[in-house]
Amino acid sequence: MTQTEIDAPVVTEAPPQRRSLLEKLFELRARQSTIGREVRGGVTTFVAMAYIVLLNPLILGASADITGARLSAAQVTTATALAAAVMTVLMGLVGNAPLALAAGLGINGIVAFQMAPSMTWPQAFGLVVLEGVCIVLMAVSGVRERIMNAIPRPLKTAITVGIGLYIALVGLVSAGFVTRMPDAAQTTVPVRLGASGHLHGWPIVVFCFGLLLMIVLMARKVPGAVLISIGVATAFAVVLHEGFGVGGWGLTTPALPDQLVAAPDFGLFGHIDLFGGFASAGALAATVFLFTLVLSGFFDAMGTITSVSDEAGLSKNGKVPRMGRILLVDGAGAIAGGVTGSSPNTVFLESAAGVGEGARTGLASVVAGLLFAGTLLFTPLAGVVPAQAAAPALVVIGGMMVAQCRNIPWHDPDYTIPVFLTAALIPFTYSITNGVGAGLIAFVLIKIGRGKWREAGWLLSLLALVFAVYFAVDGVEALFR
């Protein structure tokens, strides 16, 4: 043995580091993240989307079902927070993705303004459960790819644009910024500005103040801009009502609650009627409602999951890790939304805010979900927020959805009219179903008229036929009366 070999240091392999429970569950090191970054990202995601706990009761509470019954704000608030908490934590643990779920905007409008007037609330939530079951079955059977390939991307985008216009109109009407003309049948102007063609009253001032504040904060990219604006506008409304006796707020008066903390009200939990809606609204109408729910929720979720995953750098060769699990949780979110009474839950685009703060794993979702669980104790606050303070969020978010117009090929004659009909008829007829149906029928007819019927495909042609029957059913029934 030489002197060099004697003096050489002894090299021993370092013992493998023991993986913590969090590392095993969320693969923090593999995704180049830390606990601190995930916590920060989860808090940011929660702040960015916590407005839904206040906004969902406004949307669902603005409509009555076929019996005239309205949902309790406290019960909807509890249902919204409960479903968001459970499903967001589940997404973190099962999907290991920085994606948060809550009651989907636009989809809740379908439940409130299209389905509820034709059936009872339990029946409407029963259809929501069936929607979730359909999405889960599609995710595990491979039907998802067929439907996605059948419906052209421009029409999917047009649905998003139409829903954006729709919820913006709902916000304007809820705030009293736009009102219906009492004699609309005898005038060329069906709606007007304010109650008399002009804006007046402090409630309108609160709405305009909240809207402008929200626009400025979002333009400056302030985290939680929507929630901050709702809170400030609500405080302004409370001061006007409590300090100066201002009235005219509508369904929700901004009066201070007797207590800030209260036990959650689970009164809506489990009140579902799976198949009663088919009897109340009719088999065809209920089927179309169900199809519209599946269409809106499924494709919105796919787009959101893909875009947020890309931003987080999780996609590999265009594929998202654990996509099957993520889609299963998303489908389960719709089921949970029906069981709790909060409307379908889906992945929120605001999850991108947490990704921007460094979130890369499901730990961020667990953090956001636990924060949603904490809001269950503060349901009395939801009864303080007037429509004028919450409605600006509908207008701003609707505008963000309409921005998808930039992805529509307006120069292509195959899509111009179908896309326009889809986007325009949704707000004009106050019906997402009408817009989707008109767009699909127009698209198929144009393809047939141009000798490109093979491009429409049998599945899309069948869907167009279903919608044609839906539009004609009342006229056909009238012939046999």
Automatic annotation (TrEMBL):
Family matches, as InterPro entries: Azg-like (IPR045018), NCS2 (IPR006043)
Keywords: Membrane, Transmembrane, Transmembrane helix, Transport
Coarse class of the protein's main subcellular location: membrane
GO molecular function, one term: purine nucleobase transmembrane transporter activity
GO cellular component: endomembrane system; plasma membrane
Membrane topology: Multi-pass membrane protein
Superkingdom of the organism of origin: Bacteria
Locations listed in the record: Endomembrane system
Membrane spanning stretches: 39-60, 123-143, 155-179, 199-219, 226-251, 274-299, 363-382, 415-444, 456-473
Family annotation (PANTHER family): XANTHINE/URACIL PERMEASE C887.17-RELATED (PTHR43337), XANTHINE_URACIL PERMEASE C887.17-RELATED (PTHR43337:SF1)
Family: Belongs to the nucleobase:cation symporter-2 (NCS2) (TC 2.A.40) family. Azg-like subfamily.
The protein's name in its UniProt record: MFS transporter xanthine/uracil permease
The species this protein was found in: Amycolatopsis mediterranei (strain S699) (Nocardia mediterranei)
